Structures are given as C-alpha cells and as structure tokens.
Amino acid sequence: MAQQTDTSAARAKSLDLLQTLPELLTHNLPDRGDDEAFREYSTREKRWVSLTFREMDVRVQRWREAFAALNLSRGDRCAMLMPNSIDAICFDQGVLSDALTPVPLHAIDTPGSSAYILSDSGSKVLVTNKYLKWKGIRTSGVDLPDLQLVVITDDEVPAEDSDAHPRVITLETFLTEGAGTPLPPPPKGGDLAALVYTSGTTGRPKGVMLTHLNVLCNVRAVLKHLCPRPHDRWFSFLPLSHTFERTTTYYVGMGMGNAIVFCRSIATLAQDMQLASPNVMMGVPRIYEQICAKILQTVKKQPPFAQKIFHWAIDVGYRNFCRENHLPVQGGALSFLDPIVSGFLDRKVGSVVRRAFGEHPDVYCFVSGGAALNPAVSRILLGLGIRIVQGYGMTEHSPIIAVNKMGAINPNTVGPALPNVQTKLGDGDELLVRGPCVMKGYWKLPEATAKAIDPDGWLHTGDVAEIYSDGQIRIKGRIKEIIVTSSGEKIPPDDLEQAIGMDPLVNQVMVVGENRPFITALVVVNPLEWEKLCESLSLDPTDAESFRSRAARQAVTKRIRAATRNFPNYGVPRDVYLTRSPWTIENGTMTPTLKLKRRIILANLEKEIDELYAKRGE
Questions:
Q1: CA 261, CA 280: separation in Å to the nearest integer?
Q2: Beta-carbon contacts of residue 216 (< 8 Å; ≥ 6 apart)
Q3: Is 145 left (phi over 0), alpha (psi -120 to 50) or beta?
Q4: How far is CA 600 from CA 201, 473, 506, 508, 591, in A?
Q5: What would the pLDDT profile of 86-142 be if each residue is shown by its tens digit?
Q6: CA–CA separation, 106 vs 444, rounded Å?
Q7: Mode of pairing for the β-strands spanning 259-262 and 36-42
Q8: Are 232 and 258 in contact, with CB atoms under 8 Å apart?
Q9: CA–CA separation, 357 and 616 (whole Å)
C-alpha cells in the first residue's frame, strides 16, 4: 500500500467489506503481513517476543488443523480459560475460522463458576494454560458430560490423564496430532462468534449469543468515533473474556493493523506500560483512579511551591482541553496567562507525568468503561494531557453502545451513541437501544431473551440515562441499584461511591439505605491508611473493637462527608461500618468483572447494617 494512502480512514474503510471475524487478521496479509501484530513476554525464553501478521496466520492455521481433527460439528462450543496471550488469540482465531463457537471463561473466576459455564454451554473442548485450573474445575462437583478434550498450554500433563475422560493433553500434542488435517468450510456472518457469559450480579450468569456480524458492525461503528492511527500500539491488560477488551483492543486493534502488546499481569502493569509506550489502552475506572492516586501521593511529598505549580498546570491544561473540545471554560484569576504559560507548564509537569505511560508517550486515547469515571480523576488526567474518554456498553450489544468522539470529548458523559445505534428513553428513563449489534439472544433462555429485547427490537439496558440535545448520553446508574430511602429520595450509588473512594483510606465502599431513613456506608479500609488513622486516635489497628469504636466511625464519617460535600444532604452517609475483610471474587461478593454483588453483601452484613441504624435511633 502506498505510504500516502495508508491512513486511518483508509484502513477503517477496508473493514467495510469483511463478513467474518477471522478476516480481521487475514485482510492484513497483502499489505501489512510483515508488520508486528502481537507482542508478549515469554516465560520460557525470559524475554519479550513478537509475531508479525504473517507469522500469526501460520500459527493460527496449525490451531485450525488441530480443531478440525476433532471432527466437531459446525457451531460446537470450545471454551478458553487463559490469560491474554498469543495462544489465546490463536485459540480464538482457530475456533472461529473452523466455524466453531468460542466460549471465553474469566481467568480470575472460581472453578465452580467456570464449571457451570462449561456445563451450560455444552462445551466440547477446554483450552487452559495451567493444569491446576483444570483440576479445580474437575473437582468442583459439576457434571461435564459434553466435555471431550482438555488442552493444557503451559504445563505438563500427568500420564494417567491422557487416557481419562475427558482426555487431557498438552498443546504440543494437540497441534502435532492435528497437523495436516483438511480444513472445514469457513463461517458465515450469521454464525455465532462467541457465547459470552455475563457476570451475574443477581444470579447465575447467562450466555450471550453474539454473531460475527454483530461484532463486526460494532467494530466498524466504533471507528466512526475513535479511529487509531496506522502507527498506534495497543496495550492489553483487561481480560479478553470481557467483550469490552475483546471487541476494542483485539478486534479493532487487529483489524486496523496495529500492534497489540499483552501485559504480563496487573502486578507488572506500570513496568510493562513503560516498555510498551502505548498509544491506545482500554481500562476500567479503578485503574485510572489508582494511577491518579499515585500521582497525587507523589505530589504531596513535594514542597508547597511545587504543589502549586502542579495544580496550576492541571487548571491550565484542563482549560485548554475544554477549548479544544468546545466545552464551557471556567476562568480563573490567572486564566489570562494560559497562552503564555501552557507550554512551560506542560514541559515541567504534564510531559513528566506522561512518561509514566512510556518513554516516548504519544497517547491517542485511553478509554474508560465498565463503570462511571470519577469527574475529579478525569479532570486531573485530562489537565495533564492524558486524553481519556469514557464509553458505555453491555455484553448484549457486542458491547459498545456509546463512546466520546475525538474533538468533542465530554468528560461528564459516555459520548453519543454509535452511528448504527438507535436510542430512546423508556419507563423510568431506562435507556433502550436498537440496531445490528444487539445480541441474537441468551443461550437456551427464550424467556430471558424476550424480557431483554421487546417485540420491536429494543434492548432494555437496565440503566437510567439522560440524553442531551446534542446526543450526548449520561448514565445515572442501574435501575435495580438506585437506592430509594424511606422518605422517597432516590440516590444512585455509583457517583457517591466514587467520591468516597477517592479517600486513600477507602479500598472499597458500598452505600446502603434502601427503605431506610438515611444513607450509610460500608467501607473496606486500606491497611496502611487504617494504621495511620488508629495512631492518631490512640487505637490498636489490629483490635476488632477499633473498627467498631465510636471515635473511628466518627473520624471516617467526617472524611466521607468532606468527600461528598457536593452531593445533596439526603445522599451524604451519616454513619459507617468499617472492616478489613475485602470483597472478592473468591468469597462470592464480586463478579469476574469486579462489580459488587450488592445483594450478597447486604445479606452477609444484615446484622451489622441493622445495628448501624439502631444506634442512630431507627
């Protein structure tokens, strides 16, 4: 492809002709076959390794042959339980290319939950990286009558397992046994491209059926709002089992011919980001909040003058951002100096901070999804020149529904709906959407499908929203999660919890108050910050009584009130329950997408919550 015609628009336009997801890889071969496609850290070789699009295609063909050798029927389900990696992409491309259906399992989910999905989906094959993961599933007590084969990619397999049912073999054996097998006919656009199980905050997860055309329509529509440049590099750390990461980083990034770098783990995120110097990255609010908190902690250690310069740089940078994106600009006493000092402040502050994202940072955009991003965090990052945009979606919509557009970023919204998405507000201001990205339905659940998609084709999102006159969408919260106090006041918990979560003492927070006279907060404390607070109050941080002490509760409640000072008085928590026990996937209080299972937490702490209200005279 001639250099002058290799533009973002030209690459995006080339995707219009594609009908199935495997073409997102193969369409790169004629013009970009020798460009870097994927990069990962090899634990065997102890170094970073990368594959070109051509090398990737060769490797995918081996996986295709291996799956073809199993004589599976078109549409049969094959499950994957792996971290983000080149093998994970090979699995997905191999399964899709053979017209089979991938079932991505959450790598951090419990063995019992993974076993349930394997059973419900009727998966014939499971590919996982660790033998112990399979052992946990096998001993979970869930019957798996359809499972025929388990492939272990990173570990050796005990000899007795190779003759068991299901048969368990290594990846090398899997690929060797299938070498040279004739390939089946390719998939069609209407075939299933994934059976993705929702997190299940209120019950058993449901399998969402997405077709090749569902996802391709989403990919093409996303590029109308955010269109990465030919040289851009993506950084992947959100699990590929989530449709957010799957559709964007994997399918959009690969389809645009960009390189994708896989993070080793959350523990090495900062180090790997430095090495990758990404231009594009998907993230969830918690990650950006942690990044912001580290920046602020570093600044607090600086002399007062340096702190003033830092905050001045944010003010100037954010005003510049507002001007560039046609937003109202809030002036300040020194705003007339913005044109003179902005370059200096960016060199001294903004560019220094941005180096945390790579040695030569050139951020196209970092996207935040999965939940609302705290406005204070957004303002700081945007003021420092880190272009962060919010998006919104759900698995049932392949998943992106809305995302901010370049040149018209509004940090208070999730942006306008994608061009192929119709939107309207239903009862109770519920956001309804319709278009080609809406799922085929829930797996084996026709009643649930009919409840989610009405006869006119509108998908009911379950989210309360506001649609501005310019099409921008603001999500207010989940209908089922909005708290209605005994006085009838309605309080969306998300914004409140985000504000409270900005306090370094707070690791996790959930506000409660349904049918109660006022709001209270359940707080999982940060151990180090808890020790500091206890020292100031002459309390023993290891004593359980300290968590219940009046002094500690009053001190934390005071901090919470300061953090929520901009909220209506009826929404400000009046008391707090403190604990050191975190809410996790393992103890059943969080979903694999790190959403709180509110009903379970409420049930677990029912007695403690009742005591909070009793103490205040309910």
A1: 10
A2: 15, 18, 19, 20, 21, 189
A3: alpha
A4: 9, 30, 20, 15, 11
A5: 999 999 999 999 999 999 998 888 899 899 999 999 999 999 999 999 999 999 999
A6: 21
A7: parallel
A8: yes
A9: 47
d(CA 262, CA 265): 9
Instruction: Show the tokens assigned to 115.
Output: 């076993």
pLDDT tens column, 41-96: 999 999 999 999 999 999 999 999 999 999 999 999 999 999 999 999 999 999 99
Q: Measure the CA–CA gap between 168 and 134, rounded to whole angstroms.
A: 9
Q: Write the CA distances from 193 to 48, 434, 588, integer angstroms.
A: 30, 20, 29
List, for the chain, all residue ranges whose pLDDT scores fall below the cut of 50: 1-2, 618
Give the integer Cα–Cα distance in Å for 375 and 388.
Answer: 11
Q: How far is the C-alpha of 186 from the C-alpha of 314, rounded, in Å? A: 52
Specify which residues 149 forms β-bridges with: 125, 167
Q: Tokens representing 484?
A: 């209605």
Dist CA 461 CA 456 (whole Å): 15
Q: What is the CA radius of gyration of the chain?
A: 25
What beta strand segments (E) does 468-574 contain?
473-478, 483-484, 490-491, 506-512, 520-525
Amino acid 586 reads: E
Instruction: Report the alpha-carbon distance of residue 428 to residue 476 in Å, rounded.
Output: 12
CA–CA separation, 147 vs 79, rounded Å? Answer: 10
Distance from C-alpha of 325 to C-alpha of 328, rounded to nearest angstrom: 9
Rounded to 10°, the helix 131-138/111-121 angle is: 70
Can you read off the two tokens belonging to residue 248?
């964007």
d(CA 115, CA 124): 13
Both tokens of 281, joined, read 């990255």
Q: Which amino acid is at 264?
A: R
pTM above 0.70, yes or no: yes
The whole-angstrom separation of Cα 302 and Cα 523 is 30
Q: Which two tokens stand for residue 4?
A: 């002058």
